[in-house]
Structures
1.
Amino acid sequence: MGNSPDLGVNLGRIKLRNPVLVASGTFGYGEEYSELIDLNKLGGVITKSITLQPEEGNSPPRLAETPAGLLNAIGLANPGLRAFCERSIPFLEQFDTRIVVSIAGEREDDYLRLSERLNHIKRIDGLEINISCPNIKGGLSFSQDPNKIFSLLKKLKRASEIPLIVKITPEAVSPVEIAQASKEGGAEAISLINTLIGMAIDVEEQKPLLANITGGLSGPAIKPVALRWVWEVSQNVDLPIIGMGGIMNPEDALEFVLAGAEAIAIGTANFVDPWTPLKVIEGIRKYLVRKNIKKFKDLVGKLHNRFSES
Amino acid sequence: MTLLYRNFLFEVLCWRRRASERSRENRVEIFKKDDIIWSMYLIEAPVLFNKEIINKHYLMGLFAPEVSQEAQPGQFIHLRCTEQYDPLLRRPFSIHKVRKDTLEILYKVTGRGTSLLSKKREGERINLLGPLGRGFKINLSFTSEIILIGGGIGVAPLYFLACRLRRFPLTVFIGAKTKEKILGKEDFMNQGLKVKIATEDGSEGFRGLVTDFFFSQFHSSIGAIYACGPVPMLKEISNFSLRHNIFCQVSLEQRMGCGIGVCQGCVIKGKDRYLRVCKEGPVFEAGEIDWSKISLQGR
């Protein structure tokens, strides 16, 4: 390997070749983007949330652009567990990258059944528990109560051996408490953050730009908020963090790493520039060389050392 | 995977060639299946020219050999209008014209994205993703008259289509608010095509909506209708074609996210499910769409 820095990082039992993943909902199940970038180069793919049954999603319009941001109210449109297993898993299995499957539901039982079924698939490296979709009924309910997420995770641990990652929203009553409950419940990592809830209005028509009225805000507009939560949670909870929220370039990614994220995920940027994940990997590599840091891991949470005495 | 895909594409291309060699009596369609996806490219395309042709309407030429050679009429390209993050998303533009290595888009400045695009100069590069979406279906057995109807900026994809349909009897209807706002008339006429104009104020051609003009000229030997324009216009034409049982395709517009079928953001209501404008469209058959669910607010 010579002078090339070691980009490897572990999220509990999940070993990543490099710290760059693609965020759930912004990469589908990999098929479309595989025509534009080499999935083998990614640290991992977090697939779009699946539910037990196919979901058609919310009424259009589902998207609205806001200053440096994107509001969406897709509503978990997905082909359902069965189609996912039949089509997407065989597709993703062709690639040498980590596969993290995002699952969503309305009730505890939905998550349990999903994880039981997925437990049989060897190539799945992690389950991301989406308890923070703002666009469906009850989508946020698990985020309002640390006890609820603790008990859900306990049951999921029994149902499946796949490492669990909890996706946390800043809309939660207390993201730090939810993260702590996730750790106690047996999660091996957390994803921070899901979208913030927002809205936009067409003044001429005097109606909301989204049929759903409100939606999840993503993109550069939310980056400072995401960074703050990575900083705060990483100081209080000893669990690896996948940092995400408005990462557009290597510098953005490095901010998350310095704030305490073991790994980062590219989301909305995939829509803007599908090469972003590869550019970020390359940018991190160059940064480590320039700063003469041998291991990426040594960079994680570096900001904490500076402020640990204060 | 890539190899498999190349083979598949090669087969499709061979198959297409064979298809075009067959006689016109055989009912052979260029697109046999609905889900044929052509290669897409992500490139930095140099701007060849970018000029205002009428008030707020621009014609831009881009050097993009791979894209122009694979593009089909009705497909679109997804452009980054700025290197900055605001406005954040790409903007979709239907392909207006294709030459060997270049393609042209005809666009109207409607917001911040298109405004930034209109300021691009010759030699600047634009990040281009394309060609994308499902284009117009062309039936090689057409013998009866084909009608193209463009409303306002909706003429943009029809010129490319007209070039591919030149050997068929073709009539182009163009609708505009006023004489000054008529788009593409000379281009179509230079191709030797019959052009009929409707203006809302009557300053040229038929006075009124292009739909009413077309309906008044309708005759039974029309074999196919292709249309692009405001939603109310497309709805009327679609319902008309369904009533008269004429093959009709319309090209729709919708705000898009990824442009390649991933984000599910650009859907419209189809007969039994949501359809992604970027993937199942932007060209749809009249009967595929649930027109009662489409909002009529003009764009």
2.
Amino acid sequence: MADSIAVRALSTPEGAVGAGLVCLVAFAGLAAGLFFPGDPLDMVARPLLAPFANPAFPLGTDRLGRDLAAGLVHGARASLAIGLSVAIVALVIGAALGALAGMFGGLIDEIIMRVADAIQTVPAFLLALAIVATTGPSLLGVVIALAASAWTGPARVVRAEVLSLRERAFVDASRLSGRSTVAIAFSVVLPNALSTAIALAAIIVAGALLSEAALAFLGLGDPNAASWGAMIAEGRAVIRTAPHVILLPGAALFVTVLAVSLVGEGLQKALTGRRSEDR
Amino acid sequence: MTRLLRLCLQRLLSAVPTLLLVAVGAFVLIELAPGDAVDAYLAETGGDAGFAAEMRRRLGLSGSPMERLGGFLVGLLSLDLGKSLVFNRPVFAVVFERLPNTLLLMGTSLALAAGIGLSLGLVAGARPGSVQDRSLSATGFLLLAIPNFWLALVLILAFVVQVPLFPIGGLSTIGRPPSILDTAMHLVLPTIALGAGYIALYLRTLRAGMIDAWPMDHVRSARARGLPERRVVLGAVARPALLPTIVVLGQNAGTLVGGSIVIETVFAIPGTGRLAFEAVMGRDTAMLAAVVLTSTVLVIAINLAVDLLLAKLDPRIGARHG
């Protein structure tokens, strides 16, 4: 079932364009070490070299003489890694908690959903800021900070699906065969609810890309990793003389977020298409 | 009116456990932070262990974690979370002093977004599938993908550096008597940067609502009565589609508050958003907790206002029977 949704999503114009762009960015990120084997944070040339001025550094350099092209592709790697990690953590935790809440109901449901309510009331970026302030600026800290609010979406979706699936015949059959509630939740109900949750993944990744960049922009990203947000922050000081230092990484971020959102739109269309055919 | 009052009480009651959880969460974050406010203070001024212990006692930072949590919650009830070590003033005094600036920025951004977003959404939804609809929808999609802090810098580049149209930095020019015009000029760029995403959100929501409304019976009967197309679009199609745009405002209140952190930092606006950033940088955890709690209350208040507005517009909401 998940396969056919992917195929359908790819056959929508949004999904096709988005997937193509995502592949492009992913390729740049994966091949970063191949094209630019050095540390992208090393000084390699004269500072503030303009784009196209020196063929060895096609996009120029920043205030510290770091190669912007190298920064861009290494930044793609970091952005996608964080975006995907946040989505995976949020989906796994959200799906598990949502399934537990839906299957057991009662007090467990009440506790999980109250916590979800509280987390959704706190502005997500403020929560991320507070968590990073506690964990310190590291890759893991950023992923935890962003997943801390992102899990509530999948949790609600999975819980709602579980509640509607719980009373169906095949779940009763599974229960009559003597399996425990937890086993049923994870083996029977969850796979059914997952396709809806996966459509949420694109939205989570797009949000995580933006929030990660904003955190790095504020100086709260991993200081040892190339990051588009940090590059933009670095370029602020030279906005008058060398605007390309902020324009390039910002454009890269914009295109990536756009690509992921397009994939999400494609998935959404594929899912609602399936729904309307079901009826 | 009793229906609205009941709804109001109901919502306020359900906000209590939420606030309690957020307060405990804020306390846990303060506890987990490496070092406490005294450490951060001593790192700058220096001082011996005796001085540190005396300071901890004075700030209520000694005692067991449960005792400290109790003190924290009791303090919260009287809006007293202690003093900020950066400002050397009660944290909530600083927060409340800065809150109006954030509310002003959020208000202008929402007004801009509602004004432009709803008009564009009306144009798009009036003729679904037309060229104008497609180009507007695509523009909305692009707007949603623009990072707001980058948009802020691009606006500065265009309208401050290249063409010096607007002043930046704070909400008024230093050394000049405060005037509404001066503040308005300072607000233009931050308002666009924060509101851009919401323009897209309003556009998409109104358009989607109008597309849902087109095939409905009351639209056909409005046409059949011979109403001019203009009145059909405004009265029959757009009117019911306005309700979801109010819902969207409530759903995204938190994103708006979060966005103000970055925008206020870029434009050096002394609001609660920039205060959050300063609190993180200065390890001013009590201040950060105060900002988190105030922002949470703000989100709850916006949602309450949205719920009440919806209930006022739709008499079915909150009615006891059906």
